[in-house]
Write a structure and sequence with these properties.
It is built from eight helices and no strands. It has helices at about 5-10, 10-20, 30-35, 60-75, 85-95, 100-110, 125-130, 135-145. The termini are far apart.
Length: about 160
């Protein structure tokens, strides 16, 4: 991305904050704060406010990890989905930098026993090729339905 495109892309957390804050429901101000800060980095290198450590709302730190995992586990126009092991390596490299190291450890513990993790078995990576990316995503979403949500709590 060029600098102008990067700036536009980074503005989504502030735009999302304004949209959520305008909703007339209880709790939207706190949710708006989480949306605003979900791209902050534990070491202060994130955006939009360069918050660091525990200055970043807890829920935003959790969302950052979960959002990163999902972004890497899902095929996007600009990259193929990565396998679970590759995603774990990338996340672990970000511990203390992009991600809160304590929350990342908890996330990894939960994810290791979760049906919501990205495909692991070597032959399952062929599922996306054979059935298409939408089928693979639907399969993962079905496994992560309401019945499994309690098992994915981090703290």
């Amino acid at each position: 991305l060029d600098p102008q495109e990067w700036a536009m892309m980074k503005s989504h957390s502030e735009i999302g904050e304004r949209i959520v804050a305008a909703m007339p429901f209880p709790g939207t101000q706190e949710v708006a704060r989480i949306v605003r800060h979900h791209h902050e980095a534990f070491d202060g290198s994130g955006y939009p406010d360069c918050l660091a450590g525990e200055s970043i709302p807890l829920a935003a730190r959790i969302l950052s990890i979960a959002d990163s995992y999902d972004a890497m586990a899902t095929t996007r126009p600009y990259h193929q989905a990565r396998r679970h092991e590759a995603i774990m390596e990338i996340l672990e490299e970000g511990a203390g930098g992009k991600y809160d190291p304590l929350l990342l450890r908890k996330f990894i513990q939960v994810l290791e026993t979760s049906e919501c993790r990205a495909m692991r078995a070597p032959r399952r990576e062929n599922l996306e090729v054979a059935m298409g990316p939408a089928h693979a995503v639907r399969e993962r979403q079905a496994a992560c339905g309401p019945a499994n949500r309690e098992s994915t709590a981090l703290v």
